[in-house]
Each structure stands twice: as structure tokens, then as C-alpha cells.
Amino acid sequence: MLLTPSALLALLGLLVPVAIHLWNRRPGREVAVGSLRWLTAGANRRLRSLRPEQLPLLLLRAALLAVLAVALAGPAWRQAVPAGRGQALVSASLVGTRAFAMLQPALDSLRRRGYALRALAPEFPLVPPAAGLVDSLGQRTSARGARPPDSARESFTWARVRQATEVFPGQPLYVVTTAALREFQGSHPPLAGSITWRILPVETSATWLQSAASTGTDSLRLLLGRTRATQTTFRVVAVAKPRPGAIVRVAGLAPLRYEETRAGGAQLRLIPTATGSPTAASVVPVRTRALRAVIYASPSYAADARALHAALRAASIGLPVPLVLTQVASPPSANDQADWLFWLADSPLPAAWAASVRKELNVWQEASGPGIADTAHLLSPAAAEPPVTIWRRGQASPGTGWSPAGGNSFSLWTDGLGRAVLSRQGLGRGAYYRLHTRLSPPWSELADCPALPAQLLELLQPSPEWLGGNELSSVLSQDQRALDPTQLTPTRPLKSPGSAVAPATFRLTDLRPWAVLATGLLFAVERLLARRRVRQLSPATP
């Protein structure tokens, strides 16, 4: 095939050598000088009997121009590529683990049926058969070290599977991932094609120290978080306040060393152990003052303010420090020393409060305006709890301080389609929290949700990792919640390799270098023949 067929117009150049050869006449005959009548007649006959001469040279020059025109047209060799039978995509976090080894018989069966085994990672690299070999500890014996670290694991499985349907069109996909909810970040796009999901359960749990506070001169209150496949919970443990440098021991946690800082504060430093969580924070500051929160609500947000006030009071039971909660009907002064400002109004946030966000202030804002009807369900942190229905969603309004394009914003609460319900955008030492709906009907059922106090408690806790700028990693590092299999796209049973007809694909091989080489060879031969003819016609030198 030709990539640029219009370049064949260069074949019109063949008229040039043909015209030259047709007009190339032989020398006239020798006649007597006085016979001018015969000389004129002979010349007229030669003009009337034009015919091609030196036919080999003519054909060679025509072939030279023809090959040059074809080279300009971009010749290519089109070869049909046999379509693959299917693709088995395995999450990169599973390659080389014990779970991957247990799944090896099923993957070997797919390989015998013509499936290609690839990692669910950028460019979908092929996974060698030796990657499934593990030792007694569940680690690979053949390609140890090729498994990516935790920070490099894929967490946007929805988008990666969507990309696979476009890279391998018409081919059935067999996707193997863990049930960890942290690997299914982002929106859930519609997935086309034949996809079969294999979800491996998450059976691990983790316990970590979320925060610490000094409630007096002789005690510490430690907030411990525990996560498992069904939910993430917190509990408060009271321990005696140790001396500086002493070790604090709590069941389920690695040893902690109590240290005093140069600024006059205190902190607990984690002492690593072989069984400790590798993702737990190494240093947790000890809070010494009460948590202050201010709720400002306009008349149209009165129902939201009542629900928020009750939920915060219930959440304060789990706080390591007392909660000082104030509700006002007029805009509060920015001089108030508040840790949290719940701004429930359509009016924009005052500039003085917006400037305090960089100084460790957290601002909560809800959707303003009439909103848009959009029914969805909030993903509950506990699998046994009923889903929370959201009927309306709002749009970001100017002047709220919220910037959706912020580089450090991410979703804390999401609905069943992966869309943000509560987003956080860090700014300096503080943050904006944007609820994309409202707490009370007719916007949502959040006001009647039993899990709302526990969800607010997660936001009220001091989080040093968030202040460090790596917000997304800090949220996902400890989360062991599992995805509900019903949230996956319904798929048909896996088809046999012969039942799925993939569209024909072709591979193009560029032939222009060979055409240019042929042009050069023909030009060399043409020059050789032309010089030989010139030598034959030249008179011999005496």
C-alpha cells in the first residue's frame, strides 16, 4: 500500500525521457554537394518517421523515474497481525505474592487457551511464568525485588481497566485485583467489552496511633485506629504520662518513646519492630490544648446546623482533648482562636478567615444554591450499614475559597460512582473541606446516618501527615477496607477463546528506504550505459 498516493503524479515525469528519445535522430546520410534536392527530401522523411531508439536506455530511465515516484508515495507492506485470544490482567500488587501463587493454576489454564498474562500497570507489561514462584514466606524466589513498593502500586484500577479495553479492543479481559478499596480510586467509568473480574479478599488488619493528647499532668489519651475489611474504627486508651525518654507500651502497637521537643511540646516516637506496620507514622505530636470549633449558619442552613451540632457532640466523646463548640447566628470574628470553622451560608467566606487557613484553620463548607438533582449512594465505611442516599449535588460557587483545580485536593467521601461527596484541599497548615451536598433533607440522608459522628471524628483528629503535603498517601496507607463485589460492573461469563472475534489489526513496514536504494542503483546503471554510448559515438583520436 501507499501512504501518499497523490505522489504518483510524479509519474508524469516519464514523458521527459520518452520525448528525448523520440526526437533523438540518427545523423544524415552523406550525399553529393550538388544534390540539394535529395538532402531536403531525406531530412523530411526522417522527421516523419520518428521512432524510439536505444530502447534499453529508455526503459532504464523510465524505471528510474517510476521507482523515484513510488518512493515519494511512501510504500509500505501491510501485514495482518493475528488477534490475541484474550488478556489476563493481574494487579501489580499481587505479582509474586502468595495469593498470586495460589491463583497460578487458573492463570496457567488461561495461558493454554491463548490468553496473555500482563500486569495491570502502565503499558501492561507481560508477566513471566517464573513470577508466580514463591518461597515459604510468600516471597518470590526467581524475580525477587521486581515487585513495586507500596508507594508505586496502582490505585486507579477503574481507569486502568478502561484503558485496557481501548488497548485490546474486542478481546476478552480477565482482571484479577485485590478487594482493597484503596486500589479503586477515582471515578468509575462505563466499561465496554467482555470483562470478567476476579476479586481476592483482604484478610489483613492494621492498628496505628492516630493522635495523642495530654489531659493533665499525669495522663495521656491515645487515639488508636484499627482497620479491617469491613470497617475502620477508633478507640481511646488512657495511659499514665511517662517521663521524657520512657517507653509507652500499648497492646497491639509497637513500643512508643515519649520525648519533649525544643518548643516546649511533647511527641511520641514509634520504635520500629519486625511485626509493626511499615506505613504507620513514626512521630505523633502530643496535643495539650482543647479543640475549638465554631458553627455559623444562616437561616436557610438551620437544619444542617442542628444535625452538625449533634454529630459533633457525639464525636467529641472519642476526642483525646475536650471539644469547645460554639454556634453563632452572625458571622464570627476572625480574631477568635478557632481550630474549625463550619461556614453554613451562601455568602462567601470573609478574607480574614480565608487568610487564617494557612495558619492551621480548617474550614467546612457545604453546597450552596439550589443544587442539581442527582441520586447516588454514599459508600459507607462499614459494610453492614445501609447506604446513605444523596438526592442533590451542588456546584462550587466563586468566593468560597475552594479551588477544584488545587494540586493537593482529594476525595474523603465518595459515592458508588467514585465521585467526591466530601473533598479536602490542603492550604498551608490548614485545609478546606467541601461537602458537595448538604446534611439535611431534601439534599441527603446524612443527618440521619448513624455513622456520621464517626466520620466527623476522623476529620477532627490532628493529622501531622496531612500537614506534610502527602495527603493521599496518608489517607490510603492504613485503609484495609474491602470493596463490595456488587459495586463492580455486571459482566457475562468468560467466553471461550474462539467465541470472541477481535477486529483485524495490521502491521505496516516502511519500504521507502528500499525504494531509495533501488533508485540509487538504477541511477548508477543508467549513468554507466550513457557513458558507454558516448564513447561509442565519439570519433577515435589519431
TrEMBL record:
Transmembrane parts of this sequence: 6-23, 55-77
Domain of life: Bacteria
Alphabetically ordered keywords of this record: Membrane, Transmembrane, Transmembrane helix
Pfam short name (any one): BatA
Signal peptide from the UniProt entry: none
Keyword ATP-binding: no
Aerotolerance regulator N-terminal domain residues: 2-75
Protein name (Swiss-Prot/TrEMBL): BatA domain-containing protein
Organism: Hymenobacter montanus
